[in-house]
Amino acid sequence: MTGFGRGFEASETFAVTVELKTVNNRFLDVSLRLSGELAALESTVKRQIGNRLSRGRIEVNLSYERTTEIVYELNRPMITGYLAAMKQMQDEFSLSGEPDLNVVARLPNVLLPKKDDLSEEFIVGVEKAVNSALDDLEKMRQNEGEMLRNELNFRLTEIENRLPVIESESASVAEEYRVRLSKKITDFLSKSDSQIEMDQGRLAQEVAYLADRSDISEEIQRLKSHIEQFRQIMTDEKDVGKRLDFLTQELNREANTVASKTNNLIVKENALAIKSEIEKIREQVQNVE
How many other C-beta atoms can be found within 10 angstroms of the C-beta atom of residue 116? Predict the structure, then answer.
């Protein structure tokens, strides 16, 4: 589910800002890049997010400022190497002059902020900022979730509205088979010289066999049961997305079976319309936490 959240935490010595951006994804994928100084916090931040979110691709942006005096350290190996190269240049090309302090100071990474161990206060501050960002994110996602719930309910209702038509048509399947089979046998006998009469008992057996193979009453009942479970799961708070994803597959399986079991055009048309609604549900379910 898409969303954005921002958290801020400050004290006398630091200020931390955390921004979270989420997009749809079937699994949890946290993208977090921290500077070397904060690398030790990566597992902590990811664990916090994993405790609150279960799906989605989450992009984490963490920025901070220190309000205390920053102590710099000299990059001695770099300075030593630079001065040695300057001395070699003087000797090799008979040049005069001395290295300029301003030139040396402008070398990349010649002055480095002193790395201090992260204080407990700073770590707690980062955790609070992450939690604030998650709270802000969840507010936005709750609003989107309500709209998503309404959309899914609408699609389920569209499916339910087509089931009575399918049930009504499926009740006449046996009679359709009897008429079709009788016509085929009659046409065959009329084109031959045979005086064989149609065995009504055997015809009834064949019709019963074909009708039993094309019976879709169980599939219809399962569709109704899955829809009821779907609505029940939407009221839960944990692992909703994965369970709805599974139920969507089951809905699609039953709709496929209904469409394949009979040649009745009205049943097929409604089954295909149900499959279309299920596909729309499948797309939306990917957004559900």
Answer: 12
